[in-house]
Amino acid sequence: MNYSKLLSRLALPVVGLSLATQSFALGTTADVTVTNNVTMTYQVNSVDQNAATTVDFEVDRKYIVNVTTTDTNWVTAVPGQTFASGNYSSILFSVTNNTNDSTVIRLALVDQGQTAITAFDAPTAELSADAITVWEDTNDDGDYDLGTDVLLGNTLGILPNTIAPYAEDETRDYYVSVDVDAGDGASLFEAYTLVAAVADGGGAVIQTDDSGNSTVGVGDPTVNPNDMLTVQEVFAEFASGLAEDLGYDFVNDLIVATIDDDSDGQASNTSGFRTRVALGIAKHVETLWDPISGNQWVLDSGGPATIATGNNPKAIPGAVLLYVIGVSADSGVDATTVLLDDDIPETLVRLGNANSIGGIVLPDTVSMDINGTTVIFDLDGTVAADLNYYVETCAGGVSSALQSGSPEIDDANLGDCDALETGYVAYTVTVGDL
Fold it and tell me: How many domains does the chain have?
């Protein structure tokens, strides 16, 4: 109301005017009585006079619950992982009470299977989630701590979360972990939606508000008249707008196929898992030299690179072959203590170049397809005369020679392969005479 405009129309000989007003923030707590006092002083026949009046109203309750996730893409799940073993991965949901009052919030978890998630990679096939585990991270360390964090069980639908009210603007973190069938392969998907709804002190989801809004599964109520002296309730959260963020019928404990809507007393968000094989492996072989055709590669006289000779040597007895074993950590998962054991048939080939043949040249690079991704390994075009055994670890290059004539590579150590890193083992062999 514009007081100055209203008072200018009054036919009173106003000498002085004092308005006592109070300003309150948007988040003023519900059930607070706001008192507004107005006083007026004037004179009649030179005698001071005054008048005052007071008006009160109760701040209504504006329910806003919010669900977010920090996952920007599918969370990696490794086939065979289990929560009980401590080898697990989790998706994270954060639930915030933006209501202008302390509020109980109930949760429901929905398994949406092979469902696309906005801004995530496109799914291919559904993974086999043997079990799920949901827990509240009460100490905010990102790990489940027995006796500290609250285990919410392994069921879908309405979760048995505690009824302890959220304070105003309080956020709690909830994690969902899955056990994955050991037989599952890579690139399998599973989407989960967490739905949060405002509830009363006993934990029952609030079904209707005073502005004609209702929660999912409840018919539209009537709009209640505004009562300035009563604390009224209004659902005020916004819709998600994303197809994967569903609502949930808490009244009947049912999944619904409708997107989370405006002003229904609940909010949702979706994240999920994708299986990845932590390491992929491939092997490459090519003939470098034979005693009839000569070298496949020679050093480029104009620089350190190599060029193909076009001789196309064959794998005849006495020929020198190059083997390269490549690995690639193509997921967001680290692989530790990576060892390779390569059994070379002793009756056909042996490590090293026959009769110390010199001048045999490696290609600059070797390209291999590992788990559907082309991975290129840099061999630097070195001369292969002394290349019995070479290891490029995921973390950096380390060379190590075996004794001449060793029939196998035992435990070639690639070390710890961090996510998205690669490594290889390269060696030469000579085709033996039968």
Answer: 3
**Could you give the maximum distance between any two Cα atoms of the chain, in Å?**
134
What is the Cα–Cα distance from 352 to 335, expressed in whole angstroms? 30
Listed in order, strand segments (DSSP E) in 223-301 are 233-235, 246-249, 254-259, 266-275, 280-290, 294-295, 297-299
Q: Are residues 247 and 306 in the same domain?
A: no
Please give the Cα distance from 68 to 127 (Å, whole number).
24
Question: What SS3 state is found at 7?
Answer: helix
Please report the DSSP string for 203-235 in residue order: SPBP-B-TBS-B-TTS---PBPPP-TTS--EEE
Q: Residue 4: in which H helix or E strand, if any?
A: helix 3-7
Burial class (CB in 10 A: 0-12, 13-18, 19+), 43: exposed
User: Cβ neighbours of residue 322 under 8 Å, at least 6 residues apart?
Assistant: 284, 285, 286, 287, 288, 362, 363, 366, 384, 426, 427, 428
Tell me, yes or no, whether 267 and 288 share the same domain: no
Helix segments in 347-406, DSSP class H? none
25 and 153, same domain (yes or no): no
Looking at the structure, tell me whether residues 332 and 384 fall in a common domain.
yes
- Residues above pLDDT 90, as percent of the chain: 41
- Other Cβ atoms less than 10 A from the Cβ of 278: the count is 21
- State the Cα–Cα distance between residues 344 and 29, nearest whole angstrom: 76
pTM, entire model: 0.66
The answer on 162 and 76 residing in a single domain is: yes
Q: Assess whether 270 and 381 both reside in one domain.
A: no
Shared domain for 268 and 287, answered yes or no, is no
Q: What is the pLDDT of residues 36-94, one digit of tens each?
A: 999 999 999 999 999 999 998 888 899 999 999 999 998 988 888 889 888 888 999 99
Q: What secondary structure letter does DSSP report for 3?
A: H
| Residue 222 belongs to domain spanning | 62-275
Helix (H, G, I), strand (E, B) or coil at 424: strand
